[in-house]
Amino acid sequence: MTEADGTWSDEAEFTTLDEQVGGADAGEETALAQPVLAVVGRPNVGKSTLVNRILGRREAVVQDVPGVTRDRVAYDALWNGRRFTVVDTGGWEPGATGLQGAVAAQAELAMSTADAVLLVVDATVGATATEEAVARVLRRSDRPVLLAANKVDDERLFAETASLWSLGLGEPYPVSALHGRGSGDLLDAIVTALPEAPRDGERVAGPRRVALVGKPNVGKSSLLNKLSGEERAVVDSVAGTTVDPVDSLVELDGETWRFVDTAGLRKRVQTASGAEYYAALRTRTAIEAAEVAIVLLDASEPLSEQDLRVVSMVVDAGRALVLAFNKWDLVDEDRRHQLAKEIDRGLVRVPWAERVNVSALTGRSVRKLAPALRTALRSWDQRVPTGQLNGWLSELIAATPPPVRGGKQPKVLFATQAGIRPPTLVLFTTGFLEAGYRRFIERKFRERFGFQGSPVRINVRVREKKPRKGR
């Protein structure tokens, strides 16, 4: 039984639950567009630690190794009643090449698209040639720029921050991201510098949230770049390039979607350590925060236990699901035949999932993802009226009654769809319904009403036995 199962004793509970349902699905509030603060600086100056201090929670992945943050990553922040978005970036080094060059490009793009920029400098080192190069770029920008002198962990370092006036970016704010020293003054300055609304007119309110998940090196970042039409996520042939979830607003088939590219999930979170462990937790959080997940599978390789675990995470979280089989350009006729067998055997839990065969490399069929996402989300939001549901269920049970249990046959007296996102049915019965019969009801329910692409939960409430009165 699931945690939503329970008991009932009075028929009035039928109508009470049904009446509650109407007000429960008003939907989430539409997210308002927020101004954006980009946090930039050299590698290992403490940008992600300072981001966590600004957020007031541990979100950005932090490790005492340069270069842990590689993509630009967006988080929601709140200070003194003002909401804004903080974009953490990889370390910026002028003239960087290869993977580091891609990271630097992400930081530069964040600077150009933000509403304000926070340059973080290591106060124990002072202004380096890199900071002077960044300052020259920022002085030409029409965005407000703030300067944070980080790692001021004791009073003796306060005097050292005065030298940072030479960067020409105004007053340096001495802070200790690790201990919180000076963070309040910095936050006050940030909300003062940010405009009331974002300048970027393309940032729209409330796009549907899509988590892009899968095992390492399956092509998630490549697919995101193909969808967005730009090098939005850092891509490298080395597995595990993405560490943080990466937010992207992507225009797809005439609609804006918020995609979150996530770190590849290891076999078990417990086997990860350091940055990989926290990245796995962020991926789990990204799935919880999404409405629909695209699970990317490598069609050229056999389905692994890892793939199935990712699918199970999405289903257990109650999110709509699209299965995208990537690298389809590498699949020949023999592999297609073998893959069909693997799907029948391994993905038996999700025969209802939307499926799309794509190639992130060539762009094959990536535009088919938008219709699949819409179908899955429509099902995730779908509701069946109580009268129609009970009429259908009565006919089904009359034709195929529940199996006898303990010498008695349970009866289903009433049913209602108690929720959406995911669709959840509650059956009021006189006895427990076996798991197999619940699956039978779900299968017939889908045959009649659809719900392609969305999980459906079926909960049972069994009538309480009233104690006999003493003679």
Give a verbal description of the structure.
The protein is an alpha/beta fold. It has 3 domains: 101 residues, K homology (KH) domain (GMP Synthetase, Chain A, domain 3, 2-Layer Sandwich); 158 residues, P-loop containing nucleotide triphosphate hydrolases (Rossmann fold); 174 residues, 3-Layer(aba) Sandwich (Rossmann fold). It contains 12 helices and 16 strands. A 6-stranded mixed beta sheet has the order 3-4-2-5-6-7, sandwiched between helices. It has a 6-stranded mixed beta sheet with strand order 9-10-8-11-12-13, with helices on both faces. Helix 8 links the parallel strand 11 and strand 12. The radius of gyration is 26 Å and the shape is elongated. It starts with 5 loop residues before the first strand and ends in an 8-residue tail after the last strand. About 11% of the residues have low confidence. Belongs to the TRAFAC class TrmE-Era-EngA-EngB-Septin-like GTPase superfamily. EngA (Der) GTPase family. InterPro entries: AAA+_ATPase, G_ENGA, GTP-bd, GTPase_Der, KH_dom-like, KH_dom-like_a/b, P-loop_NTPase, Small_GTP-bd. Pfam families: KH_dom-like (PF14714), MMR_HSR1 (PF01926).
